[in-house]
Amino acid sequence: MKCHTPGCSGEHEARAISHAVIYQERSFVVHDVPAEVCPECGEAVLAEETTMYLELLLRRKGRGKGTAFPFEI
User: Fold this and answer.
1) Tell me: domain 13-64, CATH 3.20.20.20, correct?
2) How far apart are CA 40 and CA 28, in angstroms?
3) pTM, entire model
4) pLDDT digits (tens, 9 = 90+) for 39-57
């Protein structure tokens, strides 16, 4: 998939990333999140299914004490 960043001619490639998010006034880092990433500018795009699953993970794990966890299906 072609990069959406203006002026960038890169092509996205599948990678696992660490994704930082603020949920209920807390910061979390989720590791190994599947994403499409441009190797030239670093733009990362998450699939709709991935964002839905992240929301589910945060609802479950957001109540605990940890602030970092892996993306596990």
Assistant:
1) no
2) 26
3) 0.78
4) 999 999 999 999 999 998 8
